[in-house]
Amino acid sequence: MVFLQLPKVTKKTPQRVGQYLFHVDLDCFFAAVEIREDPELAGKPVAVGGNRETRRGVVTSCNYIARKFGLHAGMPINKALDLCPDLMCTSRHHSLYRDVSDNIMSILSLYTDEIRVASIDEAYLNLTSEVENDYDGNPLPLAKQMKTEIYEAEQINSSIGIGLNTTIAKIATGEAKPDGIKYVPPEKIIEFLTPLSVRKMSGIGPKTTESLKRRHGIETIGQIIAVGDEVEMLRKFGDLGKFFYRIISGRGRTIIKPINTYGAKSISNGRTFWGQMDDGEHVTPEKILPKLIDSVHNRLVKKNFKYKTVTLAVRLQDNFQNINRSRSFLAANDDKERIKTTVYEILDEVKHAHNNAPIRKVAVRVSNFTKQDPLQKTITEFFQS
Asked: Which of 248, 275, 309 is the last residue of a domain?
């Protein structure tokens, strides 16, 4: 029996052993956002999509409690209710999901320019230089910091996989779920992959999985590894053998090419606080806003952006009505006091217009950016000097 050996890294090999590619995945994203918005759903099986009364529609997303009953995305809601009679079904709020995602991707984009947002709930980042220069080659503290920042901003759990290419990082994320971190060093790739099901490899679907089991008796990646080198894999599996060898040998995509501009259009932060207490008193918008403004302003300055537009988003408690009001200015700058003054003016207007109706959530957003000249002092720096 021949076991695959990792290829040696030479000057001619385009694979860097020291790569630290992060795959960040937001756990049960749609369901997590709905549970955040309605805390009464916490601890219950929840599905996004479908109608409980008519038993029509399909599951778009579900939380881990629902998954224990065998539920999954794409399942008819009628079947889902048969498997889980206590299932809570929620409507889909696409604009809310997009707002939350945009905010989280904006946070991630502060860590590196080498970021590729793969979908509304996942992104790849190349943080090699950051890990090597700031964390002495240990990516775990940085991953913990990212998870904490995501949760503090949006109260959404995330899982992070780290590897020397995007394939290993994504498989690692799957093993880290839920709400975990998994780092696979180059020398541990074979050990990591060996016990896993072939289904764990991205691109291997149910039909291929069944075919491998039926034709070759193969169910784990370790059984593929035992086939031997690339030549043996090509002989046994055909073109699929080349795909297997690239994954098992640790080869794969190592360059993160941005395919969008997440985080460049706006910077925001919000919080749902209804029913929460602080020092024995109910939390109010006035208590929440200073931290939100500080967070938005700090990220604005790090990006060297100037803004022209300030927005306050408010969600009322009684009817969940969303209210968005903006102020735009002729001149762009990074002045935090202007953000603060504008936000509180808008809050007063909203409270007056809605007879001081109880507020469930507030969010602060700045947008309509221009790039700050790096040689020019910001307004913040000007008043500090």
From this structure: 248
pLDDT per residue over 65-93, tens digit each? 999 999 999 999 999 999 999 999 998 88
- Report DSSP letters for 319-361, one per residue: T--EEEEEEEEEEEE--HHHHHHHHHHHHHHHHHHTTT--EEE
Note whether residue 41 is domain-resident. Answer: yes
The structure tokens 């990220």 sit at: 299
Residue with tokens 């079904």: 89
Catalytic residue, chosen from 34, 122, 210, 232, is 122
- Mean of the per-residue pLDDT values of the chain: 86
Does the residue 230 lie in any domain?
Answer: yes
Question: Are residues 349 and 222 both part of a single domain?
Answer: no
* 379 and 280 inside one domain: yes
Structural domain span for residue 272: 266-384
Could you confirm whether 154 is annotated as catalytic?
no
**Integer CA distances (angstroms), 169 to 9, 180, 189, 235, in order:** 19, 13, 11, 28
pTM for this one?
0.70
> Do 77 and 107 sit in the same domain of this protein?
no
Residue-level length of the chain = 385
Q: Which amino acid is at 45?
A: P
